[in-house]
Every structure is written in structure tokens, then in C-alpha cells.
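Build the 3D complex.
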Amino acid sequence: MKKEVSPFLPLSPATLHILLSLAGEEMHGYAIMQEVQRQSEGKYKLGPGTLYDNLQKLMDRGLVEELGRRPEDDDPRRRYYKLSSLGRGVLTAEIARLEDVVREGKLRLQAKPRRA
Amino acid sequence: MFRHLYHFVVLAHPASFRQRFGEEMLSIFDQSEGKLSRVGLLADGVVSLLRQWALRPDFLQETAASTVGGEPHFYTFEKEKLNTATLVYGALLSALVLNGVCWTMGYAWNHPTYIALRRPVIIPPLAWSSTPAGAAKSVVMPALCTDQGRVILMFNAPGISSAAVAGNTDPKPNVTGGSLESSVVPCSDIPHNRVQTGAPVSAPRKTSRKN
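Done.
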């Protein structure tokens, strides 16, 4: 049974960046932080406290899953996370919503203002 | 130092959050470079600590497992929310301890323990009591005299009574009396030629006014 994604929308900026980071591959917390910084070109920095608070909520809601395995040569304190199918669906819906917002914004900005 | 502070901040998080992400937060802190970065992580940890305790009330209802891998373990911050029975027990225990401390202080106040102390006995050396050969044996008595409103304590002064007798035909009675008031005499009653050294007694100043 497919779960409805609309209750999760819209996503907060931190949640959106975390889901975007995990959309490509599974990552540990520090890699997510770096990826978020890279996506936003350094304008949005995510601290560990904010990151893990959001990860906690995302895992409780089933959008992100924790991987049990990790590379053998990696730091044993690290944990790896991946996007669940529900999380991918929520991210897809959020991107579609943002596309609508962008399209609507461009239309309104390109249209000539009416004279009263 | 920042590492210890950050470790303390991580330990202060709710147990479920700490057990789930604490080690990884420390791992990220260890990977950070630069003092500024570590200060930022420390500030982020403090904000996270406040957020977890203030805005995540669901953690308060959680109780962590009492066993790890089948082995019992004991932590100080294991149980976040204290139940009513524990609070009542803690209040009763605190009241009993406070009562005991107060009773002990009151008992010690009402039942003092005296310790007998021996009065010190000072025996001066014999050399102090012997008078050098040829020196006249005189009794040195300090005396008070008044001079222009000032009270001067004189040492090495000759006996006031004898001085008064020698320099004044009308000696003041009771100048060598025991009381302080009775021993205060005007300086004019004491002949200055009899005053020995060591007394900062100056002659009465003569004031002249130019008219």
C-alpha cells in the first residue's frame, strides 16, 4: 500500500537538503553535512545538532533508513543512512511542488504589469 | 578543552538521542579542523541540547533499556523522567538528611565541649631582674600630662609625685593614683629639666600674634 506523501509537504530547508544529499547515495552524517554545504555553495551550513535532530525525525517518519553495514576501514562510530522509498517519493513530490512554484513565479515575473 | 566541553554537551542530551547519535557527533567533532570550527560545533551542540530538552518532549517519556547485550548496566542519566514515587522518596530522604544535619548542629550548640588549657607560666630570666652594678635603682612609671589640649604619654618620666614636689610647691594630690583621670596632670606641673630622654614632650609653644 502506497503511503500518502502530501502530509509531509512542504519540507523545511534542512529536511530538503538532507533528502537531496541522500538521493544520490548512502552517506554518513559528516558526508551529509559536507554535501549540504556543497549544494548550497556554502550558504547553508548544517551543524551536527540540527542534522541529527532532523535525521531522527526523518527516521521516525520512515523517510530515511539507517544501514546496518559500513565499510570495514571506516570509523566505527559512523552510521550510514539512505533514502527510503517513501522518502524518495516525498522528495519527488517536493521537487514537483517547487517546480510549480518556480514556473508560476517566472510567469508572473515575465508578465507585463497591468496599468490601472 | 573544547573536546571535553563538547563531550559534556553530548552527554547532557537525552539518553535516546545520545545513544543514537552521540558517538557520531563526537566523530564529526574530531574531524573538524580549526578553533573557529570547533567553537561553532560547540555552539551548535548547546543549541541542540536546548532544543532536545525544550522542544522534544517525547524523549521525556522514554526509558532506556536496562541491559546492554544481556548484561545489566547502570547509568546516572539513564531515566529522564522521574515518577511520582521517586520524587516523594527523594523529598523524604532530603528532609531526613536536612533534619539530621540540623539536629547535629543544635546538639553541638547546646552541648559544648570544653578543653582545659593551661595558663602559660612565663618565667623571666634572672638577668632581667638584676640591676647593673653602679646603676641607680629607679622606678619608671609612665605618666600622662596635658599640653595645649593634647594628652601626652610620657615614659621614663620621674615619679610624678616627686617631680611635682620638686618643681611645684603645691603638688597635685593623687597624681600617682591608680585611675587614669587622677594621673593626668598639666605639663606645666612637670619640670622639663627632670624629663628624661625618650619622651616626645615638647616645650609649650609660644605663639605670637602680629597686630
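The CA atoms of residues 49 and 109 of chain A lie 38 Å apart.
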